Amino acid sequence: MKWFFQIGRFCLFAGLITVTLQATASSLQFIERIPDGNELRVLDTRPIAECEQQSIKGARCFSVGDLLGHSGRLPSQRDITWMLGTLGLSGSETVVVVGSPGDTRDFIAGVLYLAGQGKVLILRPSVNQMITSNSVPLASGQRRSMSRELHYTAHPRDAQIVLLRELQQRLSGNQSLRLLDVRSHEEYWGELIKGWRGGHIPGAEHWSQKNTQPLRLTCMDVDTVVYGRGPLDSIASFVRLQAQWTQPAQVFIEGWRAWSADSQLPVDSESFYEKKMLTDS
User: Fold this and answer.
1) Using only C-alpha atoms, what is the Rg of the chain?
2) CA 235 to CA 106: how far, in whole Å?
3) Core-most of 4, 139, 147, 238, by most CB within 10 Å?
4) Which residues are within 8 A (CB) of 38 and not within 5 positions of it... i.e. 6 or more apart?
5) DSSP secondary-structure letter at 248?
6) Bridge-partner residues for 43, per DSSP?
7) Half-sphere exposure of 79 toward its Cβ, with a 13 Å CA cutoff?
8) What is d(CA 98, CA 109) in angstroms, rounded to the nearest whole number?
């Protein structure tokens, strides 16, 4: 059953950091170096062939191809937890996610975090940089098992996941939401169409992650929901926001492709392909 954070009605929250917010901030972090400790688990998100050739010692290989199916769809929560079990994870461990900087690495980290992984650390420098500098022990990466090594028992952070119909109901019910659209400026304004329609969800503001200015915090009684084109960039962008915020954010995983495919849902700056008919499917 989904539950939601109830923190109070404050926009300026100086001095108000609850246990919930502290847990959110500490459970997902970007780091510059791998901490010392034998209890860490390392996941290499590069393509399997690169991971198997050389990686950080003890790393397991887990690429985006293991998770995303046809048309970039995510598997069910049940299948995700089974896959995490094939990596020898139970959910209580601290996992260091490494790879090449970008959506693929951050997406994998986000899937782990949303699945309930105890602590997720994301290594900013690329694995190739670590290999070249010879700054960490190296060895061949190991593929995940064909069968489950451990039962993954962590509770998913489903309070931070927003599904299509839920988002529709919350918007139609005039619930206070702050929507952040992380797609390109051209996609946001409907000048470039990568979906059934162009435009953006009504009320969404465009958030360019290239902007070096920190994103202003949201009023404490207003949920912030991040979305991109689909699961990959939606979850990756959510990770980058959540890692720098003390506030809990939410992610509309299905993203713009799912919203634009339903002709009954409203769109701002709406545009269409000239030779493509929108259907209800």
Assistant:
1) 19
2) 8
3) 238
4) none
5) P
6) 60, 97
7) 8
8) 9
Residue 109 sits at φ, ψ, to 5 deg, of -60, -40
Neighbours of 209 (CB within 10 A): 13
Residue 244 CA to residue 60 CA, distance in Å, equals: 27
Which position has the token pair 């929560």?
A: 77
The C-alpha atoms of residue 157 and residue 109 are separated, in whole angstroms, by 13
Contact of 251 with 154, CB cutoff 8 Å: no
Q: Please report the beta strands in the chain, taking only residues with DSSP state E, as ranges in sequence order.
A: 28-31, 41-44, 55-56, 60-61, 94-98, 119-123, 138-139, 142-143, 161-162, 177-181, 198-200, 205-206, 223-227, 250-252, 268-271
pTM here is: 0.87
Tens-place pLDDT, residues 85-126: 999 999 999 999 999 999 999 999 999 999 999 999 999 999
d(CA 125, CA 183): 24
DSSP bridge partners of 41: 95
Q: Mean pLDDT lowest for which of 188-192, 263-267, 272-276?
A: 272-276
C-alpha span between 153 and 116 (Å, rounded): 9
Residue labelled with tokens 């022990």: 137
Residue 188, both tokens: 């946001």
